[in-house]
Q: What sequence folds into this?
């Protein structure tokens, strides 16, 4: 009888029964998308009471529109120079003139011969391009020539020069050098302003070295640069996003401000490109450098006998063993001198530092040079060392140009850098190690010949060098443009495509469109590409759009401190995405599990707080790196908190307790991160392989239905017991060659958080399976989340969707009205409702996460079969 049934129903193939038809398999696999949501009756009643209050009293109070002019947000002038009273100007000019006549001029720099040519061209042209070779003195002397010329004419008080440098260490070094040349201290005529540090000139019109980020902030608060006479963009060949944006904005400024002069400087820029863009005069200055003997890996003595791998060396990563061998060989066989080693990023610096410390070499002073290093520690690379000590500087391209380290005799160049790259085919960005250009390599080589003869060792073959691009590809052609578009909206009402078409090099339309679409999904831009109420707040933040959104939302959901702390730790995407040591990943995971079982973000947060409170300085077993970075994290925290106040979403007078009312609600913290990113991973408990269903497969799919794997340092890596099948995350890393994607950080979250905090519209439909068990249930499909369907009772769905609508109407009200003038009156009832709403949200999320936050070590053990 059984066989007869199998044959009649086509459930047998050959001699084997068909356990599952393709329809059965698809149904069972798709049913994993269904996640149930339920609510206790008491919570439903509390929600309904709040809904009634909103409908009867509040909804009519929150419809008033606010114009942008009503938003009273004070934007600090990021480069505010002290001005002298009119009575002191003549005295000031007289003193400057005398100082100029008495000042000792640097006569051993090639640029001195071009001083009057530069000044004459500058007098007759608004824009001047100076192509000055390495060592010519352009970065230190050009601003002095300009201000001295004004001083000689008793017009020193009318000269205000801003010099933009690509990096903090360069701006600091140049400001100190120029001040020293003038027999002054920083803060007299010469000053600097970089992130976390500034010494502004006291005499008013003067020379100020700053970073490009500071100059962009100045353009935001003072779009016409009214008090500036000269802007110098130095090292323009580096072509960062900030460089290209600054050039575009300054080109616009010059059209309406004939009093401003623009000087563009570099040793290795593409002259024709800049000449065409600015239609400007050019002054070429030879450099002053010493001979540098340039070696490639195929002609370095210690590697000649080694059989080099036939594969492209640029694709093989960083050859740490060769670098260590080369350093030992240089110390053993070459005359004494400092060694500068160029590496892709912080993790390579840390790893090589550890390798060098483990060797038997004595008398080494190993110094990192990276943007993560504090300003004070960056300055240490310039300090001389005793004759019996070998200084080894491990640096990124931060040391490539603009600074002179006098005791460097040898350069070791890996010929690579780590950078974000855009993949047009996948419409996403990834972090990769890539080869640099010939121009970059020549810049690195030149670091060994600034004050004496030197040698450079490049760990690629001569053939590979000849095949490299001559100039580096500008960032605007290879990285996502979301942040660039937000900055453009601060300065222009043009559509993104129109604004980008006016850049010195124009990005692909596909990348522009994708960035606009992403900003619209984040609710930062509206359908007409204007800044939304959220966008008007986000524009004040110096973080990525998603992290900026998280910080803004934290002000509304009263969990500022944890979100701000997390954004500081996770803001450095490139360095966060890389780890070289697999053992460190395992150790890292084990220690994080001591702090939280299901959330990398909460574990990281607790680590940060422990370091701040000095309770456990050995948390990562890498105390030196952690403690060195603690100061930077604190400074970042203050910087982003200031940005939050500038955004106006919370008044600076608000007490800390109110801002952090729900800072200990872990699920709320995770929900805010999810709301800011809409990043979601759905875990499938089983799969189907080779005719069988497999249990505990833990297949993971993102909101766009992309298959991913977790990084081994995540607390959820290899998990077998799941309190929820949903995770949120911040970062992924794509490996083009492996055709795989790795998720770097995860937190398990509740289905309720997904429903309430997702950014897309929710569609409510009847269950297709009309069995008696499901006849009272509905399915909830969320826009932009392809891998998940929520199911719940009709009544519950109605209550939750109504509550969700009210929640985000109140968020929008806050985004529109916070800090608005004349809208604080008669809002007591609305504010009271807001407090009750936040309290109920916190209660709901806390209740929904009981199984997530309460996991123990026993829950992490494998399930017995």
A:
């Amino acid at each position: 009888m059984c066989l007869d049934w199998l044959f009649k129903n086509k459930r047998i193939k050959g001699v084997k029964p068909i356990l599952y038809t393709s329809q059965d398999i698809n149904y069972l696999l798709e049913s994993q998308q269904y996640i149930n949501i339920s609510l206790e009756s008491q919570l439903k009643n509390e929600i309904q009471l709040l809904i009634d209050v909103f409908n009867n009293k509040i909804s009519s109070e929150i419809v008033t529109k606010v114009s942008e002019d009503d938003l009273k947000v004070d934007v600090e002038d990021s480069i505010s120079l002290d001005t002298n009273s009119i009575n002191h100007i003549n005295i000031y000019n007289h003193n400057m003139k005398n100082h100029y006549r008495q000042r000792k001029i640097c006569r051993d720099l090639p640029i001195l011969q071009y001083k009057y040519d530069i000044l004459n061209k500058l007098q007759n042209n608004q824009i001047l391009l100076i192509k000055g070779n390495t060592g010519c003195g352009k970065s230190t002397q050009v601003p002095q020539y300009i201000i001295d010329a004004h001083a000689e004419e008793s017009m020193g008080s009318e000269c205000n020069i801003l010099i933009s440098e690509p990096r903090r260490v360069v701006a600091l070094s140049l400001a100190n050098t120029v001040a020293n040349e003038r027999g002054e201290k920083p803060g007299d005529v010469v000053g600097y302003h970089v992130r976390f540090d500034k010494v502004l000139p006291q005499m008013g019109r003067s020379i100020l070295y700053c970073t490009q980020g500071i100059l962009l902030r100045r353009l935001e608060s003072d779009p016409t640069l009214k008090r500036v006479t000269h802007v110098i963009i130095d090292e323009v060949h580096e072509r960062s996003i900030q460089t290209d944006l600054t050039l575009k904005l300054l080109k616009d400024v010059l059209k309406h401000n004939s009093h401003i002069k623009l000087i563009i400087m570099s040793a290795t820029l593409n002259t024709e490109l800049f000449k065409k863009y600015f239609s400007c005069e050019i002054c070429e200055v030879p450099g002053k450098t010493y001979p540098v003997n340039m070696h490639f890996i195929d002609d370095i003595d210690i590697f000649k006998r080694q059989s080099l791998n036939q594969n492209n060396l640029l694709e093989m990563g960083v050859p740490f063993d060769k670098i260590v061998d080369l350093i030992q060989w240089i110390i053993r066989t070459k005359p004494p001198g400092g060694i500068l080693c160029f590496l892709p990023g912080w993790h390579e610096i840390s790893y090589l530092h550890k390798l060098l410390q483990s060797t038997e070499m004595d008398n080494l002073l190993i110094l990192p040079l990276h943007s993560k290093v504090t300003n004070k520690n960056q300055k240490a690379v310039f300090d001389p060392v005793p004759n019996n000590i070998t200084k080894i500087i491990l640096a990124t391209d931060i040391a490539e140009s603009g600074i002179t380290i006098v005791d460097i005799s040898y350069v070791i160049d890996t010929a690579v850098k780590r950078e974000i790259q855009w993949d047009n085919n996948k419409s996403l960005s990834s972090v990769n190690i890539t080869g640099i250009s010939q121009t970059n390599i020549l810049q690195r080589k030149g670091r060994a010949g600034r004050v004496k003869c030197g040698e450079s060792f490049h760990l690629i073959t001569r053939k590979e060098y000849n095949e490299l691009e001559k100039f580096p590809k500008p960032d605007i052609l290879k990285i996502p443009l979301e942040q660039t578009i937000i900055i453009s909206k601060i300065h222009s009402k043009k559509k993104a495509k129109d604004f980008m078409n006016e850049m010195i090099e124009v990005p692909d339309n596909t990348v522009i469109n994708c960035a606009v679409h992403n900003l619209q999904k984040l609710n930062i831009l509206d359908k007409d590409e204007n800044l939304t109420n959220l966008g008007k707040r986000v524009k004040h933040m110096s973080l990525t759009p998603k992290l900026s959104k998280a910080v803004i939302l934290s002000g509304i959901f009263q969990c500022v401190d944890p979100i701000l702390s997390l954004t500081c730790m996770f803001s450095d995407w490139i360095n966060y995405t890389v780890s070289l040591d697999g053992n460190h990943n395992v150790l890292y995971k084990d220690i994080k599990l001591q702090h939280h079982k299901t959330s990398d973000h909460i574990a990281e947060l607790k680590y940060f707080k422990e370091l701040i409170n000095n309770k456990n300085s050995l948390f990562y077993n890498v105390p030196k790196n952690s403690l060195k970075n603690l100061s930077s994290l604190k400074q970042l925290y203050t910087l982003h908190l200031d940005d939050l106040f500038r955004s106006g979403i919370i008044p600076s007078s608000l007490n800390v307790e109110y801002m952090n009312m729900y800072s200990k609600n872990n699920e709320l913290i995770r929900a805010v991160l999810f709301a800011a990113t809409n990043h979601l991973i759905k875990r499938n408990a089983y799969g189907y392989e080779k005719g069988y269903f497999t249990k505990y497969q833990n297949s993971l799919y993102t909101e766009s239905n992309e298959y991913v794997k977790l990084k081994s340092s995540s607390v959820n890596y290899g998990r077998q017991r799941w309190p929820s099948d949903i995770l949120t995350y911040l970062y992924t890393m794509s490996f083009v060659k492996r055709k795989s994607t790795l998720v770097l950080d995860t937190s398990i979250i509740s289905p309720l958080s997904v429903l309430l905090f997702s950014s897309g519209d929710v569609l409510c439909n009847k269950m297709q399976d009309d069995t008696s068990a499901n006849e009272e249930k509905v399915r909830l499909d969320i826009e932009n989340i392809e891998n998940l369907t929520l199911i719940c009772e009709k009544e519950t769905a109605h209550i939750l969707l109504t509550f969700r609508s009210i929640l985000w109407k109140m968020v929008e009200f806050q985004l529109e009205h916070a800090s608005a003038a004349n809208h604080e009156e008669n809002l007591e009832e609305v504010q009271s409702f807001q407090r009750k709403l936040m309290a109920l949200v916190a209660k709901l999320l806390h209740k929904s996460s009981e199984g997530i936050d309460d996991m123990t070590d026993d829950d992490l053990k494998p399930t017995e079969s």
